[in-house]
Amino acid sequence: MQVPLLETKRLKIRALSLEDLESCHRLYVGIGWADAALSDEANREQRQRWLEWTIRSREQQALLHQPPYGERAVVLAQSGQFVGLVGLVPWLEPFGQLPFFGGKAGARTTAEVGLFWALLPEAQGRGYATEAARALIDAAFNTLNLARILAGTERGNHASRAVMRRLGMRIEENPFPEPPWFQVAGILEAPSAG
């Protein structure tokens, strides 16, 4: 159930390694995901623990024949320069609240495969998120035989919503106020076999 090295015209999507620590740290600081209450060094230490866990998790998932959840490095094909992350994550939400899944208030929580991307600020606006996500979606549908992939964002994140649209996702807002973090989902079903 491994996803191999993925290559597009401009990008390579590869497994993370310990050498990616500084790039991942820079990404988290650059997009505001670092913990503002911590020092730069403490944030770097958190990122190192996450990176070590990510690498070990990938190895264990393979041994257990489980989906290859986790982030992958997105690098420029020509130079190998790190520009961001893309990955598959387990996503647990009350999806039944979305119109696509029935639109019921207070729906029970279910699990879906989520698609994740994050790019360095200087790499944004160049189509890299769409290109990397498309490569991972194609691999997930073809290699893992997934039925669908979802991606989530906040109502005001127009850039992520634009990526979802370019990927062909059906975009739905949670019409209910709870939970407050479950706001927008992009839904993409696998192409019909044919």
From TrEMBL:
<feature type="domain" description="N-acetyltransferase">
    <location>
        <begin position="11"/>
        <end position="194"/>
    </location>
</feature>
<dbReference type="Pfam" id="PF13302">
    <property type="entry name" value="Acetyltransf_3"/>
</dbReference>
<protein>
    <submittedName>
        <fullName>Acetyltransferase, gnat family</fullName>
    </submittedName>
</protein>
<dbReference type="InterPro" id="IPR000182">
    <property type="entry name" value="GNAT_dom"/>
</dbReference>
<dbReference type="GO" id="GO:0016747">
    <property type="term" value="F:acyltransferase activity, transferring groups other than amino-acyl groups"/>
</dbReference>
<keyword id="KW-0808">Transferase</keyword>
<dbReference type="InterPro" id="IPR016181">
    <property type="entry name" value="Acyl_CoA_acyltransferase"/>
</dbReference>
<dbReference type="InterPro" id="IPR051531">
    <property type="entry name" value="N-acetyltransferase"/>
</dbReference>
